[in-house]
């Protein structure tokens, strides 16, 4: 590797692995280095189960009732894939799907006034659902028809709404949506973590709901997909793809220094320098070029029973909307190995996530982590160092449709 010149050098986690494969397919000379002995960085799949106990410094070994440790793959940061989203499209385009098997998530649920309710998947389920009253259901159906017909490029579909100026709050008022419907639409369909979207132009929210509906239409049961053997399969699949097209991947490679002089020059590792024109990395490799904007608490819970009121679903997502528990941001759960996650808002994060953990009791074992939410200080256009965000609390690849400030990837 001594003084080797690359077009692109990549350091980091799962998202960076995906990019290394895509860039290799596009003919770029790519080197991907990772200080860890496993794929995926902070979003890795941990196996065997004994390694998870060691990682969280849990004394002793897993009980015999949990079976063989090597049969477990535990994702540290679970992220569902929207069936019609950009990540799935990339998987199909690059044919990485040949290395992976996927499963459709069985159920989607929301928390309302202390109880769990199924998110309706069909019109019949919507009419039978107790999430909203009869008249609200009719108005909600009218709104969904509007979303389905909406075309950003065709003003005839706007029905008097200016998608670039009209706020989502005004749209909700136009369709006479009550607070329950607003919570359900904004948090379970558009997948916002807070209510800030209500005072922003409605175009983005409408496109999110449209993506949700299109993803649901692909498989009928759920809009979400998940790798059958965990998210660790994604970086491994793209590493294989990168190798086929001439890319180089190095695990367990210590990174001593990112060398730059106004612009990135290369990366020093074990006394050697890999030179590059561009660098893509996660925040842990360039801590002086990122800033902390919050924290995320995640609790991995191993269960021996299905969660109540989820129809004994083998896999599901539960969203606890912020208004239901007097918070500023939502709480998310996914199971059978259940990971509860939310944005930290106080100095006692474990108390914040308690409403979610109460839905899971009893638990066999809990693993608690609190991580900083880091974002790049700039876009990297001058230094040619492009830094991703650390992962947020959302249990889905973020469905943003457009590039935002300090966000170089759009959909995570």
Automatic annotation (TrEMBL):
Signal peptide boundaries: none
Query: One GO CC term of this entry?
Result: membrane
Q: Which Gene3D superfamilies match?
A: FAD/NAD(P)-binding domain (3.50.50.60), Guanine Nucleotide Dissociation Inhibitor, domain 1 (1.10.405.10), Guanine Nucleotide Dissociation Inhibitor, domain 2 (3.30.519.10)
Q: Name one GO molecular function term.
A: Rab GDP-dissociation inhibitor activity
Q: Which UniProt keywords apply?
A: Acetylation, Cytoplasm, Golgi apparatus, GTPase activation, Membrane, Phosphoprotein
- Keyword Membrane recorded: yes
> Carries keyword Phosphoprotein?
yes
Main location as per UniProt: cytoplasm
How this chain sits in the membrane, per its record, is: Peripheral membrane protein
Please name the GO terms of the biological process aspect recorded for this protein, alphabetically: protein transport; small GTPase-mediated signal transduction; vesicle-mediated transport
Q: Where in the cell is it found?
A: Cytoplasm; Golgi apparatus, trans-Golgi network; Membrane
Main role?
A: GDP-dissociation inhibitor preventing the GDP to GTP exchange of most Rab proteins. By keeping these small GTPases in their inactive GDP-bound form regulates intracellular membrane trafficking. Negatively regulates protein transport to the cilium and ciliogenesis through the inhibition of RAB8A.
How would you summarize the oligomeric state and partners of this protein? Interacts with RHOH. Interacts with the GDP-bound inactive forms of RAB3A, RAB3B, RAB3C, RAB5A, RAB5B, RAB5C, RAB8A, RAB8B, RAB10, RAB12, RAB35, and RAB43; binds RAB3D to a lesser extent. Interacts with DZIP1; this interaction negatively regulates the interaction of GDI2 with GDP-bound RAB8A.
Q: Which family does it belong to?
A: Belongs to the Rab GDI family.
What is the protein name for this chain?
Rab GDP dissociation inhibitor
């Amino acid at each position: 590797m001594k003084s080797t010149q690359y077009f692109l050098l990549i350091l980091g986690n799962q998202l960076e692995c995906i990019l290394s494969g895509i860039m290799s397919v596009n003919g770029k000379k790519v080197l991907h280095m990772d200080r860890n002995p496993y794929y995926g960085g902070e979003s890795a799949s941990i196996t065997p189960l004994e390694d998870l106990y060691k990682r969280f410094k849990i004394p002793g070994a897993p009980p015999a009732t949990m079976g063989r440790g090597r049969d477990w793959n535990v994702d540290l940061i679970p992220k569902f894939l929207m069936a019609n989203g950009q990540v799935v499209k990339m998987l199909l385009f690059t044919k990485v799907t040949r290395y992976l098997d996927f499963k459709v998530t069985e159920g989607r649920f929301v928390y309302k006034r202390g109880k769990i309710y199924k998110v309706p998947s069909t019109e019949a389920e919507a009419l039978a659902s107790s999430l909203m009253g009869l008249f609200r259901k009719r108005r909600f159906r009218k709104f969904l028809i509007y979303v389905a017909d909406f075309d950003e490029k065709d003003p005839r579909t706007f029905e008097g709404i200016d998608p670039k100026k009209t706020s989502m709050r005004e749209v909700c008022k136009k369709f006479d949506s009550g607070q329950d419907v607003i919570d359900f639409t904004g948090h379970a369909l558009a997948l916002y973590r807070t209510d800030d979207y209500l005072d922003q132009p409605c175009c983005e929210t409408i496109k999110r709901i449209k993506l949700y509906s299109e993803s649901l239409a692909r498989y009928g049961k759920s809009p979400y997909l998940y790798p059958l053997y965990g998210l660790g399969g994604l970086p491994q699949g793209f590493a294989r793809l990168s190798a086929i097209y001439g890319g180089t991947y190095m695990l367990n490679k210590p990174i001593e220094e990112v060398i730059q002089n106004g612009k990135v020059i290369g990366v020093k590792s074990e006394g050697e320098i890999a030179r590059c024109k561009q660098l893509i990395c996660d925040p842990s490799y360039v801590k002086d070029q990122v800033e902390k904007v919050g924290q995320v608490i995640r609790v991995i819970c191993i269960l021996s029973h299905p969660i109540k009121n989820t129809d004994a679903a083998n896999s599901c997502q539960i969203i606890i909307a912020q208004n239901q528990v007097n918070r500023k941001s939502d709480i998310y759960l996914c199971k059978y190995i259940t990971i509860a996650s939310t944005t930290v808002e106080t100095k006692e994060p474990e108390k914040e996530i308690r409403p979610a953990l109460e839905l899971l009791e009893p638990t066999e074992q809990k693993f608690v982590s609190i991580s900083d939410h880091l974002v790049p200080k700039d876009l990297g256009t001058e230094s040619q160092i492009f830094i991703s965000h650390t992962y947020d609390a959302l249990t889905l690849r973020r469905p943003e449709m457009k590039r935002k400030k300090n966000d170089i990837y759009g959909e995570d």
